[in-house]
Amino acid sequence: MKPFVQIATRPEDDVALTERAAVLAFTGLAEDELLWARLDRDPFPDLGAEDISGIILCGSPFTVSDAARTKSAAQIKAEKEIFRILDQVIAQDIPFLGACYGIGTLGTHQGALIDKVHGEPLGAVEVTLTEAGRQDPLIREARLPETFTGLVGHKEAVNTLPEHATVLASGKTSPVQMFRVGTRQYATQFHPELDIPSIIERARAYRDHGYFSPDEMEDVFDALRGETADDPPRLLRAFATLYAG
Known about the structure:
One of its GO terms (cellular component) is cytosol. It is an enzyme of class 6 (ligase). Its EC number is 6.3.5.2. Keywords: Glutamine amidotransferase, Ligase, Transferase. This is Glutamine amidotransferase. There is one protein chain. By secondary structure, the chain is of the alpha/beta class. It has a 9-stranded mixed β-sheet with strand order 2-1-3-4-11-10-9-6-7, with helices on both faces. Helix 2 links the parallel strand 3 and strand 4.
């Protein structure tokens, strides 16, 4: 089998390692079946459709819709690299699944309007499949129910999509929770790579990044502990199963 590639942009080693472990666990891939490209450190390796089965882009502390003058050099460098990768993904029809930051980057690359109108605080939300979502091969492989709980926490979201993009799942506050372009290029607003314990751990690491009030952090965590969000991680296993080449 050709390996998959996990793209990470988190500079914090402990958070990056936790994210790596979660993607390995939820995809069911072995270490050598999931290459790790940390764009906060190195350029993406010289790999194309003939070398890999697909690409998974995880969340990030970066916000793609921020004004360019406010972005750090690291963010500008990472986004330039991601857009170059997405050029290749689309041109070579490489399977792609982007989570949270992935919806901002793939959306921007494809001409969507990404802004802060539909941001959501850290928490659990109800996600509902569209008719197209119910027929989508990746979602069917994952056996997602028509309505499920997704874990979110984002400052930006899709406001409008280009006509060639297909909405696969929606939510009350953030209308585009998942979309597809092409035949197998996907992005989700919710986090398929996180379960309740891991999103709480992630949130502690980013408590001062504006996703929630630090004073309310433990209340937010208590509310999350009362939720069940076991469905979204099945997307990762389905992605690895469906597109293993």
